[in-house]
Amino acid sequence: MVRSLWTGATGMIAQQTNLDTIANNLANVNTTGYKTQVNEFKNLLYQTIQTETTSANGETKPGSAQVGLGVRNASIDTIFTQGSLLASEYDTSFAIDGKGFFAVTAEDGNTYYTRNGKFQWSLSQNGVMLCDSQGNPVHDTAGNSILLNGDYVTSRITVTADGRICYPDDQNNPQPIGVQIGLFQFSNPGGLKREGDSLYSQTAASGQPLNESTNNNLEKSKVIQGYLEGSNVNVADEMVNMITTQRAYEFNSKIITTSDTMLEEANNLRR
């Protein structure tokens, strides 16, 4: 019965973490580019209380007797399915249709990756620079900041589906100016490390970033100007998961109270 107390406790701890994950998904249901997270569980070690042996008559027993010792959280995985495309009134809003990521340089000087294409043109000493909402410079296909001179009127800038920045000529026809927004993919995006602010960093599990502009083996993503990618959180699914988690938590709590009652009965046998 002491074993069941600890087993019930592991279940309650695991379901609490599961509920934390669900709460985070629901809290970010309107976060641009957010990707749903899912808890994965695994069982703990088993304790053998009877090994395979023979009976008094020399007959072999069919198997051993093992008791499980509970559950634990194995991982919290990210589901990188496509989010819905939401119209934006800003021409510096960009949604990615595909598996690509934008790349930005943060204040610490490191490169991070994001699906949040809510960008803006920021004034600098040498012209205008394309930045994210935190002021981090956005990368072009060569990994450099996208910096244009001050002669460009930012409201007239357009971007093609492959990320090429265009500006109208004398006949008001958009023409590429030789700058392209960088798009990068990963062999295993689930291995990316979540950094907050909708940013991810590469890890050994994710592999090196693959540049879509130089890697012909990749399925190209599309950049859609005037749209943002919404989160891929399904509220109905999360509500069902929350109810299931609550019930599982209650069941494990019942295990503890039942074990406590049985122990109390055992202690009362001495009276």
Provide an overview of this structure.
With 271 residues, the protein is of the alpha+beta class. The chain has 2 domains: 2-80 and 235-268, no CATH class; 85-229, no CATH class. It is 22% helix and 31% strand. The protein contains 2 helices and 20 strands. It has helices at residues 2-27, 235-268; strands spanning 37-43, 46-50, 65-68, 71-78, 85-87, 94-97, 102-105, 111-114, 119-124, 127-132, 147-148, 158-159, 164-168, 174-180, 184-185, 193-196, 199-201, 210-211, 222-225, 227-229. The radius of gyration is 27 Å and the shape is elongated.
Q: Report the structural category.
A: alpha+beta
Radius of gyration over alpha carbons? 27 Å
What does the oligomeric state look like here?
A: single chain
Q: In percent terms, what proportion of residues is strand?
A: 25-35%
Strands ordered across the widest β-sheet? 7-8-17-16
Q: What string, H for helix and E for strand, traces the elements in order?
A: HEEEEEEEEEEEEEEEEEEEEH
Flag low-confidence runs: none
Distance between the termini: 20 Å
Helix percent reads 10-25%
Bulk shape: elongated
Overall pLDDT, averaged? 91
Q: Helix count?
A: 2
Number of domains in the coordinates?
2
Q: How is the biggest beta sheet arranged? A: 4 strands, antiparallel
| Quantity of strands, as a count | 20
TL;DR of this structure?
The chain is of the alpha+beta class and 271 residues long.
Which SSEs are present, and which pair or pack?
Elements: H1 2-27, E1 37-43, E2 46-50, E3 65-68, E4 71-78, E5 85-87, E6 94-97, E7 102-105, E8 111-114, E9 119-124, E10 127-132, E11 147-148, E12 158-159, E13 164-168, E14 174-180, E15 184-185, E16 193-196, E17 199-201, E18 210-211, E19 222-225, E20 227-229, H2 235-268
Antiparallel strand pairs: 1-4, 2-3, 5-20, 6-19, 7-8, 8-17, 9-10, 10-11, 12-13, 13-14, 15-18, 16-17
Helix pairs in contact: 1-2
